Amino acid sequence: xxxRIIKIFFSFLLIVFLTSCFNSGSSLDSSIxxxxxxxxxxxxxxxxxxxxxxFFINNSYNEETPTFDLPIPSKEGYVFNGWYDNELLKGEIIxxxxxxxxxxxxxxxxxxxxxxxxxxxxxxxxxxxxxxFPQTVVTDTSIIKKLNxxxxxxxxxIYLIKNQQYFKTRATFKTEERKFHNGNxxxxxxxxxxxxxxxxxxxLKIEAGKYQVLSEYILNTKRxxxxxxxxxxxxxxxxxxxxxxxxxxNEEEKEKILSSSDKVxxxxxxxxLDENNxxxxxxxxxxxxxISTDYARAKGxxxxxxxxxEDVGIYWTRSEAINEPYLATYCINxxxxxxxxxxxxxxxxxxxxxxxE
Length: 357
What we know:
By secondary structure, this protein is an alpha+beta fold. It has six helices and 19 strands. Strands 7, 8, 9, 10, 11, 12, 14 and 19 form an eight-stranded antiparallel β-sheet that branches. The protein is elongated. The protein starts with a helix and ends with a strand. The model is unreliable at about 1-10 and about 10-35 (pLDDT under 50).
């Protein structure tokens, strides 16, 4: 009986001990969690906007903060190009703060010249405006009257009214009836005036302050050459580096245009197949769509009969067709690439390299 009582007593003590251990373990685990939360260090994030603006929620973090993207500031006339961890803006772009990071952070914003816009086909690109070229037809009758007086007896040329340039020319096309963007029918051989407007350039690449750009719109129509696809000796290359260059840029603007062999050129077929800027497919793609200006329409740009592509024109690349001396590559209305006879009047989308500090 005595042994039984002792056995029961020790069993009771064992139950009490195990219960105590369980509760104390629970409390210990809880106390660890609470202690961890209480002891987390809050780190500061300092954003150096470099002339930009922005309202940022994530101004601090701790080691347990989930990974988050850094905010995007804005600066008028510029495109944000990333955060750097040094004021010299060197090294890798910092895009996120990852969970488990530690320490106060300082980030400096870098911007590139240009603005982000949505184009007519819903695609977002960075653009800059540089130089000028005749683009939109003049419809204001009072201005047309003044221009008629200024240009009396002259067929073609540049005329100035209150520091605004206008270009006088005749419509010349051999294909179907066409219209300006305002819906007015273009009369072949009729004289029109076109407003000089800033050229909208799509930014393709930025490297060390050098901007490779492409005209967003088809600005003119020209043949590659009379009977050869050798771009280096072509009529269109001569036009771009002489007539177009002299018409489109003043002396100050010319100083920023970089030149190796060409000041202005056409992109190659490989350029238009670069998926970073366009698409790697040879087939239809809206990344290669290009709208023709009123001026290009008056000068004979081929328009598509399909309403889907009625605003989209065709334009040349500088690449020749292999083993075909009379053919060169071009982008057709639906964005696909193909070949055409070099004497065909195709669209002109100039490209150049500009250097900004």
